[in-house]
Amino acid sequence: MQTERSRALFAEARTLIPGGVNSPVRAFTAVGGEPLFLSRGEGAHVWDADGNRFIDYLGSWGPLIAGHAHPRILAAIAETAAKGTSFGAPTELEVRLARKVVGRVPSIEKVRMVNSGTEATLSAIRLARAHTGRDRVVKVEGCYHGHVDALLVSAGSGVATLSIPGTPGIPAAVAAQTTVVPFNDLDALRAVLEAQGREIACVILEPIAGNMGVVPPRPGYLAGVRELTRAHGVVFILDEVMTGFRVAAGGWASLSEQRGEPIDADLYTFGKVMGGGLPAAAFGGAAQIMAQLAPAGPVYQAGTLSGNPLACAAGLATLRLCTDDLYARLDRTAAVLGTLATDALTAAGVPHRLQRAGNMFSVFFTDAEVRDYDSAKTQDTSAFRAFFHTMLAHGVYLPPSAFEAWFVSDALDDEALEIVAKALPRAAAAAAESAGGGAAAEGAGGGAGAARVAP
User: Fold this and answer.
1) Catalytic site residue 377?
2) Which residues does residue 355 pair with via DSSP β-bridges, in sequence order?
3) Cys-Cys crosslink for 183: which of 38, 102, 296, 372, Cβ 3.0 to 4.6 Å?
4) Which string of DSSP letters, residue by residue, matches 323-391?
């Protein structure tokens, strides 16, 4: 595989951009080697700057649910761009996208458009604090909600991948306002709420932990969180930036209802799929809470490019493609891919655990149950590194971290799955040779100044 152009670009990037990348996980630090610079994408494939083609299971970290360069999404962007790229004023497209989001999640009455998942969670936290008159935030260990000061304490995603403590540059007083509890542990949350309930503004979590690898909620967990937060007058924020419109038409909220465990939160955050590959995100919830946002209320939040017409057009086109049939196809693809992976790893004798939630899944290189961040960190990251690079060498691009979800798209076809099926036994053999060569990211997470409740 020729990578001269990628190497040259990375060398140049490091002279201009910290670490050579604009988001840390892209640097391949967790898997070793140097990142590939991608030049184009079409359907299920991406090409790097040297012309090498790969089956893509990254999908821009989730938004490209229909695949790369889908003609209907490109047409919507082109038609909108021809009329102007930005106005800094209201447009019909943002109203239509807001209606689409509200229509898909019954417990949401109003939404506010922003540009990224980080903006959405930051704004939801501010709104929860204003609504309750309290300051403290409870987050779940290993859940990533963007690089918000109060939420980088014991985060997953790149913080776990790079073994970063999570709080440099964040004032100790800010970190001290965040209490961390383990995922899937109602007893720990109950203890915190009983001890600090009058200080707590909100509890925020991902319904499916996707930034420590895919960890589904245990039966009754989210309903228990809802019951506890309501009892203590605490705002419950469900971060669906990753799961929203990815796992079902209404995100986890509608998928949980289909499974007989309906869940409703006070506030939701969205991103990724709702922008169709362009920067668009939103937060929303009950009209009573949302009415406190300026200009209707006193809580200030603003953004020059919020509701950008290109992003709204891409989001609308994407959501129109997200039918029940599409989700059924994605579920089947994820099931097939998961079976192929676990069969290959089993045959090679590699300890592993595949975990799925809807069409999101990941492979943990451990034979222990992964139910929270601590158990996710026990996996063998050396085995993953060998697995990743062997898959890449055979034309399959996976997320370059053992702590991330794999993303399927509707563009994946039998040919793409056949390429994966041929690559997996080789990757499994490489993982078997490297198994035990390195523990999981020691010291990942943590968070100076944060209150942590042990499971």
Assistant:
1) no
2) 362
3) 372
4) -HHHHHHHHHHHHHHHHHHHHHHHHTT---EEEEETTEEEEESSSS---SHHHHTTS-HHHHHHHHHHH
DSSP for 142-177, written as a single string: T----S-GGG-TT--HHHHHTT--S-TTS-HHHHTT
| β-pair type (396-397, 53-56) | parallel
Of 110, 139, 272, 377, the catalytic one is 272
Which residue do the tokens 């100076």 mark?
448
Q: Is the pLDDT of residue 156 over 60?
A: no
Q: What is the pLDDT of residue 437?
A: 56
d(CA 165, CA 445): 5
Domains of the chain, each with CATH number or no CATH = 59-455 (3.40.640.10)
**pLDDT tens column, 234-290:** 999 999 999 999 999 999 888 888 878 888 899 999 999 999 999 999 999 999 999
Task: Write phi, then psi, for 84 (nearest 5 degrees).
Answer: 130, 145
Q: Which of 100, 139, 144, 268 is catalytic?
A: 144
Q: For residue 237, what pLDDT is reported? A: 97
Q: Does pLDDT of 314 surpass 50? A: yes
Buried b (16+ CB within 10 A) or exposed e, 254-267: bbbeeeeeebbbbb
Residue 139 annotated in active site: no
Summarised one tens digit per residue, pLDDT across range 346-402 is 999 999 999 999 999 999 999 888 999 999 999 999 999 999 999 999 999 999 999
Helical H segments across 86-214, by residue range: 92-104, 117-132, 157-161, 172-175, 186-196
